[in-house]
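thread: overnight batch results

M.L. [08:02]
morning all. the overnight job finished for the chain we discussed friday. pasting input first so we're all looking at the same thing
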Amino acid sequence: MTMTVHGHACAFGLTLGLAATVAAAAGAPTDSDSVRYVEGKASASDGHLMYTESHWIYDDGGNPSRLVLYRCPDGKPFARKTLHDDDSPQAPDFELDDARTGYREGVRSSGGKRVIFVRNDKNAAERTAALDTSPMPVIDAGFDAYIRTHWDTLGKSGDTLPFLLPSRLGTLSFRVKRQGDTQIDGHAARQYRLSLDSMIGFALPHLDVAYDAKTHELLSFSGIANIRSSDGKNVDAKILFDPSKNKDVSRTDLDNAAKAPLNGQCKIP
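M.L. [08:03]
and the structure it wrote out:
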């Protein structure tokens, strides 16, 4: 889904990617060879499986990092995302590459500066802009780190924060609020909502996430993701994570995921 705000078209999506919450609560890597694997399944509103997210959380020379493969229902990967905290859990460097179309977005560090970049398809030129770090925005899976840091203080009145939208090479002001508690597959869960902080925010898409109230593990994500459909719009997805399937895997498994060909050609509606 795409929304227009003050004349700017922008994709309203982030795909939380587990990142810091899982690393903190589900068995973070304790040495350079430890790798944690977590999986989420993304479904459409009618319940059919659109894609699967496979996450590898690891330590890269003292730098908390993660790799994500997005897989078609037949198991073939079609997109890859890499994230590196580099002492900024709320605002990691990252790159998302969708091989189906050549769409690419992210933030990279270069020459002591940070740069936002986006490429709409394999035939388009890359667009870039300097990242404004005053104040430091929340970037992609850094939202999980924000939730964890503010776990005991974030209430129903909410906090306002700048959130990066790479497609518009800038940020928008969003508000995150705690919602009513719930139960998900037998787990007591806390719910939070992220929505645009403006007079028209009530009419625009929002994101809902739920975390295990005890372990702080991400249990579900519902809203506009940063995976695009066949017509180029960001998909509306419900992503469910099963903590019982989290497991430790080998470094070889991570290396294989980093090299896996992105040959999936599924058409996501």
